[in-house]
Amino acid sequence: MAVALTGRMMAVEPTGTPEPVFYQCTDTVRTVRWWREKSPENVNKVIVGTSGELENEIRVHEVDFSFTQGKKPKEEHLKKPLAIKKCLDVSDIQFVDDRGKFVAGNSDGDLVLYQCEEKKIKELERKTGLHKARVSAIRVEQPNSSKILSVCEAGDIILSDVEYELKSGEKRNAVSIKCPIHAVTWAKPDDFCTEFYTAGLGARLIMWDVRTLKPVTKFSCGTPSFAFTSCAAQRSGEGSSSAVNMVVAGSDEGVLQLWDPRKTEPLASHPLHDAPVW
Questions:
Q1: Residue 120, Cα to own-chain centre: how many angstroms?
Q2: 59: which of 43, 167, 213, 246 is 20 to 30 A away, CA to CA?
Q3: Per-residue confidence in pLDDT tens, the chain, 278 aa
Q4: C-alpha of 16 from chain center
């Protein structure tokens, strides 16, 4: 599911369909995530962070998947929300388990833990001002893991624990690079991951050691004039003896760059878009 700030959301069936299907939301869409729980009744749900003229909301919507059978959806507007929660503006959402629990960040630097049950979204814990500026990205290590990485536009990197920081209010594992960070991703999705990447202003792509919160590798993009706006890690050649973890980053100039983490220079650089890559 892809989104635009105009409120337009696009759904594409994974195996490919002739055309994507667009869903119109009445308010501005800030972030959207597929429902993590894989039970039959939840596999077609998305959770959406919206902002309107008078108020902001987190909503749970059901998506019409009839287009995957070659049929046009009965309506291009999302159905009436199954659940709604009034909130501050939401900058990112990540599920922390497969039972409807998720964490959201906002422009005040808060991290808020929520639980969605049936037709109600309940706030569980709130850490006010955990970050000094807008939370730009959140990543959970893997389903049912308590480790949460969050970054902000003031350059904060915070490793939180759902059962500790968000409940006690303390901030034990934090570092700041004094430069805006736009994205964060774990090097690989498992309980034993010891590295993560951040991407941000000045074309900074950095690998960090999660145990020390110190940089391991600083990658050179060759074009320091642009800012990285997104990054993702992917294991290439899974199952083979030569399998490596690759990382890709997108920039505000529409450029995608691919790295082998064992090298500091990009393997490839492609100007594929006319606008920032999110």
A1: 23
A2: 167
A3: 444 334 444 444 444 444 555 555 666 777 888 776 555 555 578 778 877 767 788 888 877 666 556 666 555 555 678 888 988 888 899 988 878 889 999 999 999 999 988 789 999 988 888 899 999 999 987 766 678 899 999 999 999 876 665 665 566 688 998 889 999 999 876 656 888 999 988 768 999 998 899 999 988 776 666 788 888 887 765 555 445 678 888 888 888 888 888 888 888 888 888 878 87
A4: 23
Token pair, residue 10, equals: 């696009």
11, 49 in Cβ contact below 8 A?
no
Residue corresponding to tokens 């972030």: 31
Report how far residue 46's alpha carbon sits from residue 54's, in angstroms, rounded to the nearest whole number.
23
Q: Tell me the pairing of strands 56-62 and 45-51.
A: antiparallel
Which helix or strand (DSSP H or E) is residue 168 part of?
Answer: helix 165-168
Q: How many CA atoms lie within 13 A of 253 on its CB side?
A: 14
CA distances to 30, 45, 89, 126 from 48, rounded to whole Å, are 8, 10, 11, 19
Q: What are phi and psi of 33, to 5 degrees?
A: -135, 140
The CA distance from 261 to 278, in Å, is 21
Structure tokens at 144: 């049912």
Amino acid (one-letter) located at 30: R
Residue 138: CB atoms within 10 Å: 23
